[in-house]
Every structure is written in C-alpha cells, then in structure tokens.
C-alpha cells in the first residue's frame, strides 16, 4: 500500500509544479476547464447511445 502512495506522489509532483507555475494564467485554466467539459459531454453522449 505504501508503494502505491509513493508512486502516486511521484506522479503528482509534476502536476503540483505545473499548477504553482501557472496559477496566475486564467486563460489556461478556462481552456482546461472547457476541454474537461468537452470530454465529459463526448463520453456522456457515447455512453447514452449504448442504451
């Protein structure tokens, strides 16, 4: 279990650094939010077609 947590911490370190480095760029965060919404809607529609 400790190995899993250590691996996750290693993977999350670059993400933490990215967030801290770009925290004052609102256009980046809006673009990432929009991309997340786009992915969500696309996956949701694909799953609805399976019904």
In terms of topology, how is this protein built?
Layout (H helix, E strand, L loop, with lengths): L1 H20 L4 H23 L3
How would you portray this structure in words?
- It contains two helices and no strands.
- With 51 residues, it is mainly α.
- The chain has a domain at 25-51.
- The protein starts with a helix and ends with a helix.
- The mean pLDDT is 90.
Quaternary organisation: single chain
Portion of residues in beta strands equals: under 5%
- The N- and C-terminal alpha carbons lie at a distance of 38 Å
Residue share in helix: over 70%
Could you list the spans in which at least 5 consecutive residues all have pLDDT below 50? none
Rg (CA only): 16 Å
Summarize the entry for a quick read.
This protein is mainly alpha-helical and 51 residues long. It has a domain at 25-51.
